[in-house]
């Protein structure tokens, strides 16, 4: 079953010369982990936030963002509130910025259950303890304040909070960036485990290809507001076809080949004031020809000169 289907999503922001999202298509099926990768500014966060219709002021959206078949962009406000409290949850990059420091963890976890889902006090507490245990914490945490917990523990609390209502889809936007490397690995392992246990679809936004490879079944590579390549994690990482994917991989350290030389991608992504003609990656691409500068490439691999073939 498809839990999320983004179809030709377009987003325009005030003051920008071109759409910040220019026709994004993406799908997450039940129990599937999908990674959305790309450099900073490519539009990953805006894509994932669109799923909850958390758009910047003045933004104009086109296309469709369907959760279990229903278009989030066209939903009435009451239905949108229900979607946000039951069906789709989000885990953010910095847990300390996403939690009220004055509240104990217990109140933080139970308040939304009681307010939005009408749970009794005892029922909400029992559910909170169940989810804390699912993320590897104990009920001791209920009495603690956020500042008494490490960053990794607090991110576990945020994941427990996100799963309280049993959502069909979890959005995780750079959920480990604020954590140290070993804690990052623990959180990624935890998300993989929870996906297995609860069958939740997971959209994992990251600029870190190593993390994406560790967790994802399917990968979408984004550049300047477009998906340039997608496929199973295995094929995209083992046999990238778009030159941007290859360049990203060459810029990423590999545990399997620690001695491999890394190559930074020359140049920078285009900023939103630049109007684009042709392929947005062409100015940085070693394979670019005249056609690339004039004609926008389309297709599963959005490139006029893709390498190899996906098996
Ligand atoms: N609220 C906003 N108002 C104006 N411009 C915005 C806003 N949010 C994002 N942008 C711009 O939209 C573009 C895409 O941003 P987005 O945050 O989706 O990128 P990203 O790929 O998630 O990068 P990062 O990893 O840095 O968050 C960027 O150029 C950014 O500056």
From TrEMBL:
It is found in: Cell membrane. GO terms for cellular component: plasma membrane. Belongs to the ABC transporter superfamily. It comes from Actinomadura harenae. Its main location: membrane. It comes from the Bacteria. GO terms for molecular function: ATP binding; ATP hydrolysis activity. Gene3D superfamilies: P-loop containing nucleotide triphosphate hydrolases. It is a peripheral membrane protein. InterPro entries: AAA+_ATPase, ABC_Ni/Peptide_Import, ABC_transporter-like_ATP-bd, ABC_transporter-like_CS, Oligopep_ABC_C, P-loop_NTPase. Keywords: ATP-binding, Cell membrane, Membrane, Nucleotide-binding, Transport. One of its GO terms (biological process) is peptide transport. The lineage of its organism: Bacteria, Bacillati, Actinomycetota, Actinomycetes, Streptosporangiales. PROSITE patterns: ABC_TRANSPORTER_1, ABC_TRANSPORTER_2. Residues 4-249 form the ABC transporter domain. The keyword Nucleotide-binding applies. The keyword Cytoplasm does not apply. This is ABC transporter ATP-binding protein. It holds the Pfam family ABC_tran. CDD domains: ABC_NikE_OppD_transporters.
